[in-house]
TrEMBL record:
InterPro entries: ABC_Transporter_SBP (IPR050902), ABC_transptr_periplasmic_BD (IPR002491). This is ABC transporter substrate-binding protein. It holds the Pfam family Peripla_BP_2. Residues 56-314 form the Fe/B12 periplasmic-binding domain.
Length: 337
């Protein structure tokens, strides 16, 4: 009987060993699943494939840093533009999401401005770099060093939403990206069904006092103006035309909107003193600019701010409520604004 029992025990042990080999522990299965390759298509139409979700990323433009925090993937960032620390409203907000921003401890692999230092980027050992597709020289240099680059275009609302969903795949935040883009898409639909019969004309002036530089038909700003229910005063199908004061009088906008400029940049121009929008004090500054960055899904809030200035029926109270709700959803956290 003892020999028989011993044999049964040995057989049972062998079976258990075989089963353990064929059925690894759940923790091992979980570890394996986290290393599954991920792919996404960027603004160039290029498919970026990583052996696993990105764990260390360098971001070369401010708006894209914002995107990463919306996706709640800020802990993956190892490099950002120097401007994040220099732009007061951006720095103040992102400091509330990440102590490393607050302490200015995240590396800034830049020479200054938008120029990046490839050597510094390599030293940060990223497995992914995020940038705009206009940054061709840097993109080529970084990719030639064997570092994957995902590019954005932010050409219009559809591209902004699509690019956020795609980068969400690479960061392991696909579900989060779907939550954000789903909400924004619904808000955009609502806005497009509630336009004024006689839309006001808006002239948009570029930042840093470049009053005679604007955004034409088909541009990102043109999309946001149209979404607001207004009309772009610039009828030219050019991305960034420079115009004369005479042309601005000809277009005769109802409102002038400034971005990172001062009211005095307009009111001090003698050649514009007789322009109706100037005489009627219909010049507005989008300030602080961070909540309304049109290069992100906040193009929706940019449009809502324009709507408030154009349509008295859309009150400041309603705008404030909409901005508060939007921030809770796109950042996934209450009390940020």
């Amino acid at each position: 009987m003892k020999i028989k029992n011993w044999g049964i025990t040995c057989l049972s042990a062998v079976i258990l060993i075989v089963q353990s080999c064929n059925n690894p522990k759940s923790s091992n299965q979980k570890e394996t699943s986290s290393n599954i390759s991920v792919s996404a298509t960027d603004s160039r139409g290029k498919t970026i494939t990583l052996p696993h979700e990105a764990k260390r990323i360098v971001v070369l433009y401010n708006a894209l840093v914002d995107d990463v925090y919306m996706l709640q993937a800020g802990e993956k960032i190892v490099g950002i533009p120097q401007q994040i620390y220099e732009m007061e409203d951006t720095y103040h907000f992102l400091s509330r999401l990440d102590d490393r921003i607050k302490n200015k401890s995240i590396a800034t692999p830049t020479f200054g401005g938008q120029s990046s230092n490839a050597e510094s980027i390599v030293g940060l050992k990223p497995d992914l770099v995020l940038t705009f597709n206009t940054d061709e020289d840097n993109i080529n240099q970084i990719e030639n060093l064997g570092i994957p680059v995902f590019t954005f275009s932010s050409l219009n609302d559809e591209k902004i939403l699509d690019e956020l969903k795609n980068v969400g795949k690479l960061l392991g935040k696909q579900k989060r990206a779907e939550e954000i883009t789903g909400y924004v898409s619904e808000e955009v639909k609502k806005m497009r069904t509630s336009h004024e019969a006689s839309p006001k004309k808006i002239y948009y002036a570029w930042s840093k006092g470049r009053i005679m530089s604007t955004s034409g038909k088909g541009s990102l700003i043109d999309m946001a103006i149209t979404l607001s229910g207004a009309q772009n005063a610039c009828p030219v199908p050019v991305e960034a035309p420079n115009i004369s004061a005479e042309t601005l009088y000809k277009w005769n906008p109802d409102l002038i909107i400034l971005w990172n400029s001062k009211l005095s940049d307009v009111y001090s121009l003698k050649e514009l003193t007789a322009l109706p929008a100037v005489k009627n004090k219909q010049v507005f500054v989008m300030s602080p600019s961070f909540p309304y960055d049109p290069h992100t899904v906040k193009f929706m809030l940019f449009a809502k701010q324009l709507r408030h200035w154009c349509m008295p029926s859309y009150t400041q109270e309603q705008l404030d409520q909409d901005v508060k709700k939007a921030f809770e959803i796109i950042y996934g956290k209450k009390g940020l604004i």
